[in-house]
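Re-running the complex after MR caught last week's input typo. The corrected sequence lines follow. Everything else is unchanged.
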Amino acid sequence: DSGVTQTPKHLITATGQRVTLRCSPRSGDLSVYWYQQSLDQGLQFLIQYYNGEERAKGNILERFSAQQFPDLHSELNLSSLELGDSALYFCASSAWDYEETQYFGPGTRLLVL
Amino acid sequence: GQQVMQIPQYQHVQEGEDFTTYCNSSTTLSNIQWYKQRPGGHPVFLIQLVKSGEVKKQKRLTFQFGEAKKNSSLHITATQTTDVGTYFCAGRVDSSYKLIFGSGTRLLVRP
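Corrected-run output:
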């Protein structure tokens, strides 16, 4: 158990819908990262927040957005969902932001029908 | 853009055989990390290498960081069925906060 929690574990929805994925980092960690992993694919970095502020952006679609709240939990919002958005979404956290080990949560498996 | 390439994509070995996965970056990395993801699981941090030419060992696993800090390797001696999973390298470029993951090498071990 990494100490990072993600909810929900599974999510099934339809195209065009909007969903919110939630992540609680390890106690004391200030950075939260979001990754997308499609079937048999590597990890695609989406976005990072550090202490409430956006720190780095990866290959995140305009239909996707994220935020980190004062209590440091983070939410990833996916809208106008398409079939291709079906994937495993991981959240990771680290104590700081640079040169730090990332601890991954169990992931949310999203299926768009 | 910055890329981290990893080979091979798959490796199927007999238990007891050795295994190596290689990671190459198009740019110099400030550090490189290695993660293991078991089937159905999430990536778990294994190790971080920072210095040019650094070699670190964890039991049967040997990690190397190239002299130019553009490549790295993970070598497993005498694989066991518990080694099954996908091994990812992840590198960070000095000017970026992003950790760029390689595509991973999926290791299958025949008992």
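None of the earlier attempt is carried over here. Residues 34 and 47 of chain B are 6 Å apart (CA to CA). The interface with chain A takes residues 6, 30-31, 33, 35, 41-45, 48, 50, 88, 90, 92, 96-104 of chain B (CB under 8 Å).
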